[in-house]
Amino acid sequence: MDFQALNNTTNKRSALLIKNVIASFIIKGWSAVIVLLMVPLTLKMLGVYCNGVWLTISSVLIWLDLMDIGLGNGLRNAVANYIAKGEHEKVRQAVSSTYFMLLIIVIPIVLILYGIIWGFDMYAAIGVNKDMVPNLNTILAVAVSFASATFILKSVGNFYMGLQLPAVNNLIVCLGQTLALILTFAAYIIGIRSLLCVVTINTMAPLLIWAACIPYTYKKRYPQYCPGIKYINTRMAYSLCSTGMQFFVLQICGVILFMTTNIIISKLFSPAEVTPYQVAYRYFHLTFVVFSTICMPFWNATTDAFARNDIDWLRKSDRKLNLLMVGAIIALVVMVFLSDFVYRIWVGTDIIISKDLSVCVAVYMLILILSQRYSYILNGLGVLRIQLIFTTIATASFLPLAWYVCKTYESVTGLVWVMCIVNTPGLIANYWKYHSVINKAK
Q1: CA distance 165 to 163
Q2: Confidence of residue 68 (pLDDT cuts 50, 70, 90)
Q3: Which residues lie below 8 Å from residue 2, measured CB to CB, with a gap of 6+?
Q4: d(C-alpha 430, C-alpha 386), whole Å
Q5: Is the pTM of this model over 0.85?
Q6: Within 10 A of 274 (CB to CB), how many other CB atoms are there?
Q7: Contacts of 154 (CB under 8 A, 6+ apart)
């Protein structure tokens, strides 16, 4: 074994990881500012009820975003693995095959969604008052149209993550958010303050940024990986789908566990009740964002390290992540104590958020952070089976438990505690599997 070459690769990997973490912090910091500015802005534009409808619609769009059957995550792992092995032609085939599969997937999905939107009573489906939102079908159709196009183009972000450049993906996302904020503020100043306007801006802005990134990436920056019809490899497409399907199941389960809360609250309580929950969620979610920003580069850096059998780097990374978990716990405790003050400054006194709700959302975020600390590394290694088992169990138990708690206790706080309970076994399983794999590698 060439230990000098391995050491050089280790140093380069660590240096690249640090650069991406620092850059991602700056970018995510600006993204957090955008979220903080966007919440009161859309509240002023729409009011509590229509803002709750927008938050519910945005949750529904997450489902469309995941209909790539995990191809995006399959692509990022494939790119990292092929580059580590020096198989650059296969990288181009993986990129081409991914776009080919995405096109095959998106067309029937869009047709089905249009049929649902115009063929069923969407007001009853998501619990919206027709007098408050008279053009719901048009709003949903616009959202689906722009989100579907983004669905295809955004895989360039997975390509960058496979190159161990997640900061670039974060930058593209941030630019889309920035454009959305600028356009939303302009609409507010002009006096265009409809739900249709907000939905159009927030789904169109990311699409424009992703579309601009495609020619820059594949024509100017990385022409050697530019996708083309002749590079489509059906066998590789099948392999990507096979790996991607495991990620897809995890993503779908994640959506049910994490993103259907808005829909449940809107349906069983009122769209107006979505807003207080979302304010608390977004406040404590900042800790999750910070932790994810640091953890994200470890995903494909781990893929690269295992492909090169660099076990020493993995051990050092383990110690660093343990320190980060301690920091996350301290941050969440401080945020709970400051929550009432922050809410008053951020959204005013019209929205009442109980301390109980703040505490349980903070606990929920802690469980997600601890679980993610292990799952990101397992994802990079392609160790997905145990995650699939426990995430599927959690998903199957969540909906009936959530429905029972909401109906029996009529409490949004109770719903969040259900989310904590069903996710805890998965955290324990990730912890056990992670240490099992790491110890075996040692």
Answers
A1: 5
A2: low
A3: none
A4: 8
A5: no
A6: 27
A7: 72, 206, 210
